[in-house]
Design a protein that fits this description.
Helix 4 packs antiparallel against helix 5, helix 9 runs antiparallel to helix 11 and helix 9 packs across helix 13. Helix content is 50%, strand content 9%. With 416 residues, it is mainly alpha-helical. The longest helix has 24 residues. The protein contains 17 helices and nine strands. It has four domains: 35 residues, no CATH class; 32 residues; 90 residues, Orthogonal Bundle (DNA polymerase, domain 1); 170 residues, hpI Integrase, Chain A. The strands form three sheets. Strands 1-2-3 form a three-stranded antiparallel sheet, with no helix packed on it.
Length: 416
């Protein structure tokens, strides 16, 4: 700017190195050299009011987003005030001049609280706005559970998994069904899980179901975070899996009635899960080919696998084999309780027959990878839980368990 500041009404030029204060006695607009024209924002005007005769001048401005006026006794005071506001406007912009002081103070305090976390007011605002939008879009926990169950059915989850999930969510909805899904907190879920007073693994199973529920809520936009993900996991002190001794396995088979023999024998010598046994069809038991097929649709892992039929297993199930039809008839579970009672096995370990198969099979072949394929588990899990649970000589005896003459007579009698 070679000519410095020049007012419209002939005010003398001010050197460019001087403080750029706008002369208030100038008229409405001013120019900076040959640049654009800028309106003087805070003009001093005469003021007359018979009720306030001492006040002679007024300056109009905006403060805190509202129009206001400042009154002065002398023109000098009014001009000084106008100059100060003009400089402030040039330094901070109009938003800075009109920014409410209470909001400016709040912004400073909030920024100070966020600074140790490396976050800004923008981060906090974005997070809270997302929460408010999710809350407005959200639904109740009961509605969320129903929607999730429908989605799981459409995705083709197994019947046993679906009913297990439905049962656990039903219990949770009893207490939280009317809550907004976006507002349920980690503390509330933690306290609820502890009130169940279950064994550690049972509590963790509920925790897993709730993690799935709120993960579904996040994916659907009903919540911004998963409150169940940060809940405390109960400590499970895992000992060796409970298995049957050779004598107990013999007693169990000898206590069977005709229609319970295939269920017990296949469980002991092929290691199928209880849910897989309930779905097994005789058409999937290939005695000639020497294997049992667990189809992908019936397997817990949704992966097909083949389990070899051992010589002693073939001997147990040969008399009952059919071309088709369910292996496990309806209502067998109650009769199986009677079988255990007759065998003197009142203290029944969880999944005792499947665990027995894994232990005796690993001791027989010494191949964790092979056993994992037959059981549908990982080699690491097989090696970790079933290694060296039984001695080789006991494994040899286990795989030699065959039907006795009394059992053959029972089978022949049942066939008549």
């Amino acid at each position: 700017m070679d000519k410095g500041f020049q007012a419209d009404r002939g005010v003398k030029s001010i050197p460019t190195h001087s403080t750029p204060l706008l002369p208030i006695r100038a008229c409405k607009t001013a120019t900076f050299g040959n640049c654009c024209r800028m309106r003087v924002p805070f003009r001093v005007k005469p003021y007359r009011d018979t009720n306030r005769p001492k006040l002679k001048f007024v300056v109009n401005l905006q403060e805190r987003g509202q129009r206001t006026r400042r009154f002065f006794d002398t023109k000098r005071e009014a001009e000084t005030f106008s100059q100060q506001k003009t400089v402030e406007l040039q330094n901070k912009g109009r938003e800075g001049v009109e920014f409410p002081s209470w909001l400016r103070i709040m912004a400073g305090e909030c920024n100070e609280l966020l600074e140790p976390f490396g976050k800004t007011i923008r981060h906090a605002t974005d997070h809270y706005v997302a929460f408010l939008r999710a809350s407005a879009k959200s639904c109740t926990v009961s509605e969320l559970a129903v929607e999730m169950q429908s989605a799981k059915q459409a995705d083709g989850v197994s019947t046993s998994h679906f009913h297990d999930l439905k049962s656990r969510l039903k219990n949770f909805c009893t207490d939280f069904g009317n809550h907004n899904a976006a507002t349920v907190s980690t503390k509330e879920i933690d306290d609820w899980l502890r009130r169940l007073k279950l064994a550690p693994q049972g509590r963790n199973n509920y925790r897993s179901a709730l993690r799935s529920l709120f993960n579904f809520a996040v994916k659907r936009g009903y919540a911004t975070t998963n409150p169940a993900a940060n809940t405390e996991k109960a400590k499970v002190v895992s000992g060796p899996p409970g298995i049957l001794t050779v004598a107990q396995a013999v007693a169990l088979l000898n206590s069977c009635e005709a229609d319970t023999v295939p269920f017990v024998a296949i469980s002991l010598f092929a290691g199928l899960r209880a849910a897989e046994m309930e779905k097994l069809d005789w058409s999937e038991v290939d005695l000639e080919g020497g294997h049992i097929e667990v189809t992908a649709s019936k397997a817990k892992t949704a992966r097909r696998r083949l389990i070899p039929i051992s010589e002693n297993l073939a001997a147990w199930i040969q008399p009952f084999a059919k071309t088709a039809g369910v292996v496990v008839p309806v209502g067998l579970r109650k009769r199986f309780d009677a079988v255990k009672a007759r065998a003197g096995l009142s203290n029944w370990p969880p999944n005792a027959m499947r665990h027995s198969f894994a232990s005796y099979r690993l001791a027989q072949c010494q191949d964790a990878a092979r056993v994992s394929l037959e059981m549908g588990n990982s080699p690491q899990m097989i090696f970790q839980h079933y290694r060296e649970l039984v001695k080789p000589k006991d494994a040899d005896r286990y795989w030699q368990i065959k039907p006795s003459e009394d059992t053959k007579k029972m089978v022949a009698f049942a066939a008549k």
